[in-house]
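Subject: complex prediction, re-run

Hi both,

The earlier run crashed halfway through, so I resubmitted it with identical inputs.
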Amino acid sequence: MNYEAVIGLEVHVQLNTKTKIFCSCSTEYSGNEPNTNVCEICSGQPGTLPVLNGAVLERAIKTGLALNCKIAARTKFDRKNYFYPDLPKGYQVSQFDMPICSSGYIMLGAAESGEEKKIGITRIHMEEDAGKNVHGADGKKTFVDYNRGGIPLLEIVSEPDMRTPAEAKEYLEKLKVILKYIDVSDCNMEDGSLRCDANVSIRPVGEAKLGTKVEIKNMNSFRGVQKALEYEIERQNEAVKNNAKIFQETRLYDEAKGITLSMRKKEEAFDYRYFPEPDLPPYDISADTVVKIQAGIPELPDAKFKRYLKEFSLSAYDAGLISNNPPLAYFFEKCTDDYKNYKVITNWLLGDISKKINESQQADISKTNIKPAHLVEMLELIDNGTISGKIAKGIIDEIFNTAETPRQIISRLGLVQISDNDFIINIIKETLGENQKSIDDFINGKAAARGFLVGQIMKKTKGKANPKLVNEMLDAELNKLKLQ
Amino acid sequence: MTEKYKKYNDINELPLHYKPAHVIRTMLDSRQISPEEIKTETLKRIAKIDNKINSFLRLCDINNDSGEKNAFWLNIPIALKDNIATKNIITTAGSRILENHIPIFDATVTKKLKDQNAFIVGKTNLDEFAMGSSTENSAFKKTVNPWDYSCVPGGSSGGSAAAVASGMAYMALGSDTGGSIRQPAALCGVCGMKPTYGRVSRYGLIAFASSLDQIGPFTRDAVDMAHALDAISGHDSKDSTSSDSAVDNYSAAALKGYDFKNLKIGIPEQYFTGGIDAGVLNRVEAAIEEFKKLGATVVKVSLPNSKYAIPVYYLIATAEASSNLARFDGVKYGFRAPEYKNLKEMYMKTREAGFGAEVKRRIILGTYALSSGYYDAYYKKAQKARTLICQDFENAFKKVDVILTPVTPSTAFKFNEKTSDPLAMYMSDIFTISINLASIPAMSIPCGLSENMPVGLQILGNYFQEAKMLAIAAEFQKHTDHHLCMPAI
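This time it finished cleanly. Structure:
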């Protein structure tokens, strides 16, 4: 019998608000001394009360709208009760039965295969982050750092609509791109601003009923999520093959070993004793508020992708690469305002410029020195023959180093293309005079010899000779020699 | 045998320590007495009698001179219940688990009184985490009733009630979750008010049951009560449940009084159906007669769902308490068990030794009420009943200005009389509890004595009708002298 996997993801993202969710402490905590980014509220001192940061509600609604969710007309907070040292109040203020957003979706697959698949989003709710337990080097003491306590989180819960680990990874990537576009989170799994738990079960293909669900925690990268799921699905398949029982349980992913290990069985699951948070009244969200927030949502990757195909005639592959990279898409669109050969822009962006971004180890194009005006100016200089494509590559390097404009670089380095016929013919003649063997080879039918000659000529002119003229004039000269 | 109490003929006869704060204010303003004198006299009295009364857990002497110069409470000695946070001064909530806890911030009410430059004398005793009706649940000491030292002062704000009743403070703040201000006020013969939920900020009040807790004052009379409410009321951006509705000028309303010809009083039939001591019933009915004589109209109202108040209260209050008290885990502040093998044992030993029996009982009850599988049957159902109780009051206040009831079914009871029977203790809150569930304001004012012990009359008002209630109470006190009866200490 063939089995298929059923995967659902629970993603936590830290919102990039200036202050924490219920107090005025900063959200910039990484690198701070432990417990220096805390106040009486986020450290749970007796008598303190929470006050909701309006920016959290706003970003939650924005996220819901970007993920095609229904926004609740009324939402409330609940307490999730459990004891743990990193939880200063003994409960987490979260949302239980009236989440801010519900019933949304993300579309996958447009760029890769052109075949779209809808992944449902069950709900999105707001909650506070916990602190962090830090275990002492002696293995005996545990310390608690509450700097992270009270950082606003959104929990985004998907429907069990994914069937492969690759799909799960694609979902995460797509979610990240959307959240980046609407600028609500840094979405960095490595530093914990995005965290993901996965629920996975297997069932016979064609079966409608879900199998026994296993939750996997402790994955630190999108790749890790994919790897953990691959392992876990394989483990479940093996279990079925061996007539072993699959338990409903929580398993931890061990990245070093690439395996999942049982953490707790269902019977050991907590009873969180949710009840409405009496310290926070319910919030009514007006249609007006939703409309206003909707107006602040920029064009999202799916819409961009479709527009790039239509408006700029990009290939699906190129359109996918650009639309899924918000800073690159911004750069690209800026260029298209002033330069109309879109394919050329795309080639430079996805070719030499992307290579430079990688080499520079910057997160994205917006963090580098190159600006849309630079690229447009350079492409115009190529078009009007001032520089060659080869020179242009050098100019890109210089822009990344110095942030100068192409014109400034050309003038500083004397890179203007040589289109003077007399000068070029002299260099050609000089080169031919020095390379009789290559001439013989060419006449004898070795086409590569011609390339060698072009290279020699360009070398003598330090690459500045107009390549079109060099090619034309060299051919004329070689023809003459052939006829002799 | 010496007299247990003394009834004064008018305000001017009262000794300094029993004068209302508004008289002290006048004396200070007209320099008949200096701030130093009033301070010294108060501290002398505390030194003399608090070793018997045991109102104070500690004295604190907060009186900086930087606040508002024209404030009513400037230099007037007042006290705070020890579940109200005072910056840099130990605040215990009457619990071993917070025995040495020093808050790093002031409660909003503390700050407001500091801004008025009141002389904060000390922090008063209470039932642990305000859970109780006799102050016997304090981890630290037993406060006695100033009228009879063999009786409880009531609770949970017993220390604050006794401090005002015995002339050790001119005003004291308490907190009221199910009657914890009104019941001790009645048993100690002073005025006590639980304002509308949201009228006074809860920021800095160590929570018992968040949806029921409200801070309120104890005073000698209704005019002082109005001044106290003026000082502590208002919206607080630090308390999301505080109301932003306009705050009335309470002292102006109290001083103006009320024309009883325009007063319609409701008497809820369900509150007068037995279970009340004859002496108490007699005093309350006599007070209602006095209102009538002064021109008020009295009609019957019905509060049929009040019969559910006690079970509803003990589900909601304990559920919220079980969560509110989870933070006392030995990790961050307060007591931690000295020896433990692992995290779970640290939690268990800390909470075992840190909490008293009543607190543990309520945590267990509340945890049970919220547990998976029981939530719908208990907590959710209680919330529905709470809505019905609210509707009862809303309907009643369509017909009447205020409702009058007893505060307690009996006068102050003896120590240990009810400690072995929690249910009997819970029943002593029967007339006060539904008010917290409905979030409406209510106050207790003295209405005479039964067997030499004070009896309280409860005045209930509609949401945010404190000004009307205070005007009515002040008018009543203009024509009566129950509030001029003081224990002989």
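The radius of gyration of chain A is 30 Å.

- K.
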